[in-house]
């Protein structure tokens, strides 16, 4: 049995994470990586979904070292037959904020200077009321949180989920997927013919994908999702 969830995240705070740094500008791409969503939804560091969870592997409140453990955290989801796609914006707006900080001279040696140059930067953030859409594929029924925290500011977002009614499962067919995918997770079992790249760490994503592979179709979809063909053979893969 396969269950497909159509998920929507509605921001109640501005969302910030540094997708790219351009001089003093720290820009947030209007896409949510599927690695990040696994953490946001609580599938990581949860004994229900992880075979080994310990305080050493915990990430929520303290990280002893700044070394990602994506493979260690996400491979157990493959064993649970759970996969999350990246999230594409249904609609969004951005806001530009400027921050600056002054020197605390009582903490450092005071040296004379001929110029008064403040330290400052700008963050391009995703504004509240923006919405993102993604899919979760599972072999069993899942329980999702109603509210989640995400991004550098632990921004609050409302999560809504709806299970989709599968119509048919097609094999080795040519089709187009207009949402966002992780290329590592889909190229192992599908042939990608064309795509647009979204450059972002830790793995650049792809969108507007034309491909050959297996996919699901669905019944009773809303008008804006008519004709959806969701790739079926996806799992977390990691580069060597």
- The geometry reads as globular
Number of domains: 1
- Work out the helicity level: under 10%
Tell me the CATH topology.
Alpha-Beta Plaits
The number of distinct helices, counting runs of at least 4 residues, comes to 3
Share in β-strands: 35-45%
Q: Give the N-terminus to C-terminus distance in angstroms.
A: 32 Å
Largest sheet entry: 9 strands, antiparallel
- Named at the architecture level, the CATH assignment is 2-Layer Sandwich
Radius of gyration: 20 Å
Q: How do the helices and strands follow one another from N- to C-terminus?
A: EEEHHEEEEEEEHEEE
Highest-level CATH class: Alpha Beta
Beta strand count: 13
Low-pLDDT ranges: none
Protein model, in words:
This protein is mainly beta and 240 residues long. The protein has one domain (3-102, 122-231): Alpha-Beta Plaits (2-Layer Sandwich). It is 9% helix and 42% strand. It has helices at 34-40, 70-79, 183-187; strands at residues 3-11, 20-22, 25-27, 82-84, 88-91, 94-101, 119-126, 131-138, 147-150, 155-181, 191-198, 205-219, 230-231. It is globular. The two termini are 32 Å apart.
């Amino acid at each position: 049995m396969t269950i497909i969830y159509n998920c929507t995240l509605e921001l109640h705070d501005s969302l910030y994470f540094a997708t790219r740094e351009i001089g003093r500008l720290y820009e947030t791409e209007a896409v949510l990586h599927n690695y990040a969503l696994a953490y946001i939804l609580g599938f990581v560091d949860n004994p229900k979904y992880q075979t080994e969870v310990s305080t050493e592997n915990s990430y929520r409140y303290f990280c002893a070292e700044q070394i990602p453990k994506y493979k260690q955290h996400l491979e157990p989801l493959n064993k649970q037959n759970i996969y999350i796609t990246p999230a594409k914006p249904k609609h969004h707006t951005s806001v530009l904020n400027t921050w600056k900080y002054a020197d605390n001279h009582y903490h450092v040696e005071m040296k004379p200077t001929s110029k008064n140059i403040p330290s400052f930067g700008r963050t391009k953030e995703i504004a509240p009321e923006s919405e993102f859409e993604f899919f979760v594929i599972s072999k069993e029924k899942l329980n999702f949180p109603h509210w989640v925290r995400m991004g550098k500011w632990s921004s609050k977002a409302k999560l809504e989920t709806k299970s989709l009614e599968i119509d048919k499962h097609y094999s080795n067919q040519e089709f187009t997927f207009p949402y966002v995918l992780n290329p590592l997770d889909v190229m192992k079992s599908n042939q990608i013919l064309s795509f647009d790249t979204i450059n972002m760490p830790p793995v650049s994503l792809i969108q507007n994908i034309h491909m050959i592979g297996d996919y699901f179709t669905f019944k009773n979809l809303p008008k804006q999702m008519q004709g959806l063909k969701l790739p079926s053979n996806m799992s977390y893969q990691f580069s060597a």
